[in-house]
Amino acid sequence: MTHAVFVFFAVVAVASALLCVTQRNPVAAIMWLIVTMLSLAGIFVLLGAEFAGAMQVLVYAGAILVLFMFFVMLLQLRHHDSDIRGKLGWVLALGVAGALLMQLAALKGYTPGRVAEEISRAPEMANPALILPQAAEVARSAAARGAVGAVAEPMFTRWLVPFELTSVLLLAAIVGAVVLAKRRL
Amino acid sequence: MPVFAPGLVGPALLVSAVLFCIGVAGVLLRRNAIIVFLCIELMLNAVNLTFVAVGQLYGMSGQVIVFFVMSVAAAEAAVGLAIVLSVFRHRATVDLKHANLLQG
To answer: So what's the ipTM on this one?
Structure first.
């Protein structure tokens, strides 16, 4: 059952991503990307990341893509001529993306057992078990503290400095956006 | 009850790879600056899916990184759209064909 739901969300995500890339109208492309993001949120929930799925819906589909939509409406873009590049662009895009996909397709066989075996064959690689708690512990901590608490605990202990740096980054982005977009400072 | 499905990790990584490649193809194929940004968002999302999938095996840190990626995506969208807006003021188009000068 879980697998069937996963396949459904995966097919919807990939199909709407393809439609997003090939749409001529930016508004339609944004709408298709929203469909991709919502199906990715479904996949997040299936993978046990409920809080990340909720944030995906709220922040990505709800805030970032609405910003894009607002921007397209603000500019009042016309779209009579296609902006897809010529033959060289197609060759380049399909070539690079195809080569990348061929390399990355090997990830399909990624299982915990295989990773453990590869690490035991190359012990000089960092042992993930030393750095991060193991999978069973993830499920246990989520069961004990709920989906939010299990994420909040590492975020405000181990990842506290990156978390604070994120707020500095957002402040810089706000100032930068105002400086760039304002006609006269 | 939280689900734990290690069997889904491999397929999820494959979906993430496919989405990332679609994003790469879109960036190379399109000249509309807004759609190029959408493709970058698509690539960031694909990476988020990778972090969630691998985080299921190795701990909650994967999900924490997803939040950092999301905030970087928000910052990138705000600054990037401001740049596109200032290009639009000069050129009255968002076609990257016309954005070919480093000077204003």
So the answer is: 0.89
